[in-house]
Amino acid sequence: MWTFGRKLAVGFALSFALLMLIGVLAYRGVDVLAQNSYQVTRTHAAVTHIGGLLSLMKDAETSQRGYLLTGEEGYLEPYRGALTSLPKLISELKPLLRDNPAQQARFEQASAMIDGLMAMHKERIDTRRGEGQEAAIRNVKLGEGKRRMDELRAVITQMEDEETDLLRERAREVESTANGVRQTIVWGTVAGALLVLAAALTLSRALTGQVGTAVKHVQRSSAELQAAANQQAAGARETATSMTEISTTISELLATSRQIADSAQRVVGIAEQTASFARGGDGTLQAARETIAAMRRQIDLVVDHMLDLGRKSQQIGVVLDLVGELAEQTNILAINATIEATVAGDAGRRFSVVADEIRKLADRMTASTKDIRVQIDDVRGAVNTTVMATETGSKAVDAGARQFDEVAATFGRIAGLVVTTMDAAREIELSTKQQATAVEQLNVALSNTAQASRETEASSGQTSQTATELAEMSRDLLRLVQAQPT
Questions:
Q1: Does the predicted model carry a pTM greater than 0.85?
Q2: Does position 341 have pLDDT exceeding 80, yes or no?
Q3: Dihedral through CA 349, CA 355, CA 361, CA 367, nearest 10?
């Protein structure tokens, strides 16, 4: 299936190809038209030169006749002008006839006749000057000059007729070429308009279909994102509640540890009375053992909650990856929509505004995703720290349990070992202080974890709100794309 970009490229390629074809045909037509115009101009010049030759020959003939009759030199001015102008006119006419062999032959014939007539005129003028008017008149009466002049007129007339016919033919070619250029431009313009119209309709349908499909996909993804955000918020609330309960338990455990430390100090002071209270002390040790077991269970519960929080953090990371990918796709769609809106001109201005809002929303989603990812990383770090602290507390509890076992064994022999009991009391005091310190550290870690859970809950709410806004924007975009023209 062709993508929208490929369809757009094909449409522009066809339009460009048609434009190039019209340009080439128009250029060729204009070139042919220019060549024909040049030929017409040259034919006009040839006709003008041919007429000039006949006119100069008439002037020369009239000039020499006037001189023969009157003998006045002033009558020879046109003759002398013809002697000067004829060679130049003949040399200019010859290149104008080079593409017509028949005209070249007539030109050579006319040139020979002109040379003969001019020689005859010179001979008569010389006769008039040397032998007088009568001798010159006798030569004129022979009729040779008139015969040659008539022959020259016939040849020049043929040349003029030939150039006139050629001029008409080339004028018809110019008109035909001009009509071809006009038709090429008109039909090429019509074909280009039809092609652009067809491409516009095709691209409009493709844009509506593809963008509509993408918007529906965004709607589905928004719904999934919102559901995941709600689930994340619920998990964060549960985690926060669990952290509060654990913190309360740890606070109670801390108070108990401090009480044990105070009791251990008092045990040192009343060690001398330990023998009489050995049996009661055994019961107290049993209670202490149960308390330590309870501590052990609470710590295990804390570890379980921390691990569960870690797993949920990983799930949140997966959701954030999906959100990031969705934001990137939305941004790409918004950019493509902006490009298409720009191509559409004024008709796509409203669509461009919507595409810009979608791109801004995608940028906000990307920024929120980065913030949430940073907070999740903080939560993971806090969870790891808590787990390590919990393991330390667990080891301390195990050590306390073993120490209490030793104390219980010692209490079995307490009747005769009061000194040993005092040492054991001091060990109990030291162990309870260490336990209190560990519990305080655990309490701080749990407070940080609870704060991170609350921040995660707030971020989940923001993610849910963003997903809702994205879904609403997707519906608006879908209504805009699928709107029917009124």
A1: no
A2: no
A3: -110
